[in-house]
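Write out the 3D structure for:
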Amino acid sequence: MAIIVYLVVFVDIRTKHFMDNIILVIEGSSINIDLVRFACYIGELNSSEITAAFIKDTISAETSIENQTDSLRFDEKMAFRKSGEDEDNDRTLDRNVEILKEECSKKGIKIRLTFKTYKELIDESRFADLIIADPRFRREEEIPSRQTRNILELSECPVLLAPEHYTEITEIVHCYDGSRGSVFAIKLFTYLFPNLLDLRCILLQVDKEPEWNVENQKEMQRWLKGHYSQAAFNVVQGNVEEQLYNYLEERQGSLVTMGAYGRSSVSLMLKESHANGLLRSLNNPIFISHS
């Protein structure tokens, strides 16, 4: 008599990492230490390598290794053309690279250093798991900055906007408006960050009218409870921007997820000037995805 033995192997997904390519966008002429520390924290969560993309459009990437600078060494064959008037900026850039290396070394994070133009950054995003960017890029008054908005609109991977001041994540707030985009963002974040599934998770809907599709509510409750150990639900009525601000103002450790370009509460965060006040006033990381 033949005996067939089936071997079932159970793998705890929280011991695995699901992101191998995280791109950190850094302005070449200055470095935000809180941005770097936040990126190291995200990389540490997933044991992920970080690609630091220094954005300096005045420097064009070359393919010849012979033209590579002596002061900057990269682990890929990238070389850069510099003009004499940029010598001070080049020294600043070298110093910023050393600061980045030091912070990543403290956390044991592997880094890959590159120079990128915006076009190259967008092209590379197709093969990235996540982009981490500073909404206050180059400290422009407009928030998100013009450069960050371009990244949000054109990137082919999700974007995580870093908080102004680094803080660890203690809670997840999923903004939900019933759209495909908001549900996609919730799912994608959940799959990319399995090590955060034990944190408190809140599904937040802000509407001008007190409406909630009961069937959708049940489905979302079932889905979230199947993935998060602490899931809660909150419906807030009123002006979208005001209510989001009031809700998140005291939740400094909350990470917020949003589906880009949805039709109601979520979409307002990315249109015209609606995002400016919230991002300027709040200190929350915001995860944004395209559906």
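DSSP finds nine helices and twelve strands in the chain.
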